[in-house]
Amino acid sequence: MDKSNRATVLAGNWKMNKTASEASELIKELIPAIEGANCDVVICVPYTSLDVAARLCKGTNISVGAQNCHYEESGAFTGEVSVTMLIESGVTHVIVGHSERRQYFGETDITVNLRARKAVSKGLIAIICVGELLEEREAGITEDVLSRQVKAALSDMTQEDMEHVIIAYEPVWAIGTGKTATSQQAGEACRFIRGIVEELFNADVAKSLTIQYGGSMNPSNAEELLAQEHVDGGLIGGASLKASDFKSLVDAASK
Ligand code: PGA
What does the pLDDT read at residue 146? Predict the structure, then answer.
């Protein structure tokens, strides 16, 4: 399958790191470092840094993303942020269904689908995260889990909606642990996900879908992971918080 059909997207997931002033410093380092990137670059920053990120990244090759969004337009949802609010802040991407939200904040397959649908309906790119737990991999049910998560997340989406979807395969056991999936494991899981999308939609949608790998991707393993036929970029946690590391990953994704 030809990778040139789809965008390679490298997205930093800053998680709950960096105050707005710290974000500003890091972004000022990042802008010149990655201006020659030959891939799409996104930084998903905390809500409090969205404004500064959008202002600094305007006119650069860096897009700004959020790490979550609500599925209602407005209302009594204390602590939540709507897609319209994000768009007004200059956001173009949003992570949905990250395993930390599933694990610690009660995110379910159903709410992942609601959030993702709301995001794409308003024109944001939803980076939908899926991935198995260690015990699920050990029990040999990785594919069952991925199939369930992908089908649920994409439920009721149209082919047009899929133009606004990225899927990030993030095995939960590899996130922030320093344990990376082997490039073969990552490649197989991404291939499997593409197959599910083909089943749900058609070969064209599957062929043009960007599927990222995430989980302890760093400058020493990125090249091999990104060389996999079905891996079209990365969702990067720890290594997105240091300009030099993130630049190395952007360079690897630009090859
Ligand atoms: P990590 O996080 O790169 O620190 O493992 C990836 C993620 O959670 O998106």
Answer: 98
Q: What is the pTM of this model?
A: 0.98
Question: Using a 6 Å CB cutoff, which residues line ligand 1?
Answer: 13, 170, 175-176, 214-217, 235-239
CA-based nearest residue to 61, from 83, 32, 97, 82: 32
Residue 1 pLDDT more than 90?
A: no
DSSP track, 96-158? ES-HHHHHHS---HHHHHHHHHHHHHTTPEEEEEE---HHHHHTT-HHHHHHHHHHHHTTT--
pLDDT in tens, 191-208: 999 999 999 999 999 999
CA-CA-CA-CA torsion sign (182, 204, 37, 165): negative
Give yes or no for a contact between 132 and 171, defined as CB atoms under 8 angstroms apart: yes
Residue to mutate (ligand 1; options 96, 179, 235, 241; most atoms within 8 A of CB): 235
pLDDT digits (tens, 9 = 90+) for 223-245: 999 999 999 999 999 999 999 99
Task: Determine contact, residues 169/193, Cβ cutoff 8 Å.
Answer: yes
